[in-house]
Amino acid sequence: MAWLVTGGAGYIGSHVVRAFREAGEEVVVIDSLSSGHAGFVPDDVPFVRGTILDGDLVRHTLRDHAVSGVVHLAGFKYAGVSVSRPLLTYQQNVTGTATLLEQMDAEGVGRIVFSSSAATYGTPDVDLVTEETPTHPESPYGQSKLVGEWLIADQARAAELAGGTLAHTSLRYFNVVGSATPDLYDTSPHNLFPLVLQMLQRGGTPRINGDDYDTPDGTCVRDYVHVADLAHSHVVAAQALESGRPLEPVYNLGSGDGVSVRQIMDVAAEVTGIDFTPEVAPRRPGDPARIVASGELAARDLGWEMRHSLHDMVASAWAAQQRHSG
Description:
CATH topology of the largest domain: Rossmann fold
Helix content: 40-55%
Order of helices and strands: EHEEHEHHEHEEHEEEHEEHEEHH
Distance between the termini: 39 Å
Protein name: UDP-glucose 4-epimerase
CATH superfamily of the largest domain: NAD(P)-binding Rossmann-like Domain
Number of helices: 10
Catalytic activity: UDP-alpha-D-glucose = UDP-alpha-D-galactose
CATH class of the largest domain: Alpha Beta
Number of domains: 2
Structural class: alpha/beta
Strand content: 15-25%
Shape: globular
Number of strands: 14
GO molecular function: UDP-glucose 4-epimerase activity
Largest sheet: 7 strands, parallel
GO biological process, one term: galactose catabolic process via UDP-galactose, Leloir pathway
Radius of gyration: 19 Å
């Protein structure tokens, strides 16, 4: 029996795959490589190249590898771009999830851990986001993730009515950073850490968008969590479902306090040894001063813990960036 990781050749997915292996769990990967990398998948892990929109491919993968549960990370993940490409976003994230659930039902696979997003909250008017905070997504990406949660919950109810079971939970998180190994790195063209580190490597000066927010140092405060910590909780969630232990439908994997953009810049200078003063640009429209989530519920049920400091996050990302560009 194995767990299927959709999107397992991506930055987060590949870390989840390795966390499964470290826990002694069998795993199989399906990934279209639209943003993932075949080299991120260990040689001894079965890899199926293809999209979850291909129902036949998904069904044969579930059957051929005796899959007992799915960790679903595959999807279009760029919130900003989703505004200009809503149809692609919904196709990948909503139709893809529906297709996956359909094939899971056909093959009797009754467990799923869904990689959701804190983008489902939009811009919450609270100091600390909890699972009870109302959802108001502000992009097609955030909306598609919320619809994915609804699809899974509705399919679970349908399975129960039919005398079956679909055990599930959804994990919401903000900014995932760092690397557990220099072989795996964030290749997103939109995320802050790779943008800052690549800029420094090229001899440029990173930029802060606004330094006059109502925060301790005037820059935006966000949740940043280390990818290894995140991957660990995905595996714990999967193991809980497999053991029959009930989980909440949704968990936030949050830091509880957050860090500012200025703090990230300061630590980047310290870690890289490159002394720089970031440029300050005007605020970007729609950027809230602070978005931070509580991880208390996940700590109770999923072993969630911030095991890595901000220094660890930057240092591991820098080591991976140097390996990649070297």
